[in-house]
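hey so u asked for the seq, here:
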Amino acid sequence: MFGYHVPEPDEAMLISGKKPGDGEAPFVVVVGHGKWVVPLFRKVRYLSMAMHEVAIREVCVTTQGIQLDVRAVIAHKVGGDVRSIVNAGQRFISEQEAEMNQLTGQIFSGHLRSIVGSMTVEEIIRERDTLARQVLEASKREMGSIGLVVDSFQIQSIDDMKSGYIDALAAPNIAKVQREAAVERARADQEAAKAQQESLRNQADYERETAIKRAQIRAETDKANAEAAQAGPLAEARVNQEITREQSVLAQAQADLREQQLISEVVKPAEAEARRTQIIAEADARAVEISSAAAAQNNRIALDQQLIEQLPALVGEMAKGLGSSNLTVFNGAEGVNELMTGVVTQGAALLRSLQSQFTPTVIDEPGGDGVVTDIEPSSR
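ran it, structure tokens below
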């Protein structure tokens, strides 16, 4: 849109044309958003805030007078604050990347030469990180004054330019390392030989133990085979004996079962039938006994009935006898009543005497009904 400007995310927009006040920046800095700019009266420029990388290579002389070819890499960019953007914009707005890299390289090269000149080769080699840190610290102030910040400074290589100094310094260490390596190799070879001897000894022990075990197993196998061969007939006899015993047990079980079946099928029914016959016979006998008793009782009753029927005749005969006799009754009718009462009483006594003299006889013939066939005098 005409008059409205928006910088890129890695850019700072610089708007010039306005007269700055006391202490103000010579231009307006806009980062991260857009802004209306009056055409013709204002001018817009963009400053890159992206990361830049510059490589330097410097020949430095140590305190020992030995020249060293030192290579390093610097990563830098414009600072994120307004002051840094203003300082960088005033210096690099026209040729940003080239000018930034060139000036940064010059600053670091100068400090690198200065710091290497205050150190020995041994210190530089042993303390390369210390060298890089000192150079970075020494360059910060100057880099900040031009609006730049350094993200990293790395020393890539240090070369004595074929003077052999570094090699000479390394020789003792190399020799030491070689000696230690030789010692380690000898120790390793010794350990390997020892391990091999141990392995051979273990192998021999293993083979010897294996041979002993095999011999023991063979002997035990032969012994077992011999015992098995000897024990074959005995084992077979034991098996046959066990089979016979099992067959006997089975036969006994079958016999017991058959006995139970016979008891259930023959004995029990026979016993039941015999018991039934006995009960029927006992019942029949009891019935006959009861019938006979009843018949005897009936005959007795019939006899008593006959005697009772004959009682008036007996009393009459006794009365006739009294009538023909010469009796004198003093108390009149009462005396006659007493006399008659005595006659009747004697008749009853006579009836009881006759009942005791005669008892019915029950004759129970085989197949008979137990009836009274005769009345016989009692033996009493």
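Strands lie at 4-5, 11-16, 28-30, 35-36, 43-48, 52-61, 67-78, 148-159, 358-363, 371-377. The chain has six helices and ten strands.
lmk if thats what u needed
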